[in-house]
Write a structure and sequence with these properties.
4-stranded antiparallel sheet, 25% helix, 18 strands, globular, 387 residues
């Protein structure tokens, strides 16, 4: 496998480590390798449950080239299926829509319930014969993808081999136990997406650290200064930053969002921003939260899906729109940085760069995780090939 990269310097202590080699940002072969090592085998973010608010709502999605179907079944449970018919692999749902009865394949009209059961196989035994002894419907339901809802995010594990979600994410769940409360999506004005010409990992790396605040986010840094921030690091799981100064948003009449009930005095002026590996960026505050799901579209193309949440439903629309615009401005300020680093990865001989031992450790934490997972994937592939 000639595209394999040398990751030995990436896993060194932060004082002497280099960043990931250029190929991890620009090489399609390495992008494919990382798809399996980092995204298929972990609990990755796909969407949010708010994307399918009512029973029967169905949204086709593409995840790293895999056609998937996000839907809410007739009993209200959110499910993820492979978006293909078990007959000939035809795509079942092409556009977001409401499933009124069954999911019908447009090719030969095999039909599935919203729970994935195969319920109809017209003419499968010949004209007018809708059954056949060799077609066992109870064995040919839609292939369901392992999924879990936490903080309204639909997390998926395509390989099916990851530990149970509650085990894999135990540390971050415990860290934010005070926020284990109902979340209310802010609606159309509280969702937006950004198309960014960079590798998805650069979005994670930038989000992890506060080092860039004075120069990239001068408005934010004017009240939540660099020196007000602290590092958050859980090797192999997540990393990020927190601030000891959070300023609540208010409108012209002084109205503010209601607080999450009972989160405690710790969060009166504190907020945290964590990248949960591999591709979900989360933020929590006393009165609102957000989630960013990074959708890798190629080595140099990422879509950031941003969603904002509140403690109560029906908060003032104007205030929600103002909050969304505030965060959109902050996230847009990062675009030239990650796109600039992406361009820089085209420079032959760039060694991945060096880290500030004091300021860059959350980013180094992510790099070390990437390197470890990729090396583990390579070892597993080699062992399988040897067999």
């Amino acid at each position: 496998m000639t595209h394999l990269t040398d990751l030995s310097r990436v896993r060194r202590p932060v004082e002497s480590a280099n960043g990931l080699p250029n190929a991890h940002y620009i090489d399609p072969a390495v992008f494919e390798e990382e798809s399996h090592a980092l995204l298929f085998t972990q609990w990755a973010g796909l969407a949010v449950a708010a994307d399918v608010p009512e029973p029967g709502d169905a949204v086709p999605m593409d995840f790293m080239g895999q056609p998937l179907l996000l839907l809410r079944d007739k009993d209200g449970a959110v499910r993820v299926f492979q978006n293909i018919c078990r007959h000939r692999g035809m795509i079942l749902v092409e556009e977001p829509r409401k499933i009124e009865g069954a999911i019908r394949c447009p090719y030969h009209s095999w039909c599935y319930s919203t729970k994935g059961d195969l319920v109809s196989t017209p003419h499968v035994g010949g004209p007018g014969q809708n059954t056949h002894a060799s077609i066992k419907r109870n064995e040919l339901g839609l292939n369901e993808v392992r999924s879990h809802i936490w903080r309204d995010i639909v997390w998926i594990n395509l390989s099916g081999a990851a530990p149970a979600f509650e085990v894999a994410m135990a540390d971050i769940i415990a860290r934010w136990a005070e926020f284990d409360l109902p979340l209310h999506h802010g609606g159309p004005s509280s969702r937006f997406q950004l198309e960014v010409a960079c590798n998805w990992k650069l979005a994670v790396e930038n989000y992890c650290e506060s080092y860039h605040l004075p120069w990239v986010h001068p408005g934010l840094n004017s009240y939540s200064r660099l020196e007000d921030h602290y590092h958050i690091e859980a090797p192999e799981e997540y990393s990020g930053q927190g601030t000891l100064v959070y300023r609540q948003l208010s409108d012209e009449d002084g109205n503010k969002f209601p607080d999450f009930e009972g989160v405690g005095a710790k969060w009166n002026e504190q907020a945290e921003y964590v990248a949960v590996y591999p591709n979900v960026l989360l933020g929590v505050h006393r009165d609102h939260a957000f989630a960013i799901i990074l959708e890798p579209k190629g080595p140099g193309h990422t879509v950031e899906h941003v969603h904002l949440y509140y403690a109560e439903d029906g908060t003032p629309e104007g205030l929600r729109a103002r909050n969304a615009q505030l965060w959109k401005t902050v996230f847009e300020e990062d675009i030239f940085v990650v796109e600039g680093m992406q361009k820089g990865r085209r420079v032959a001989g760039f060694d991945g760069g060096r880290f500030s031992p004091v300021m860059d450790s959350p980013t180094h934490c992510f790099h070390a995780w990437v390197a470890g997972k990729v090396l583990g994937h390579r070892a597993a592939d080699s062992a399988q090939a040897a067999e």
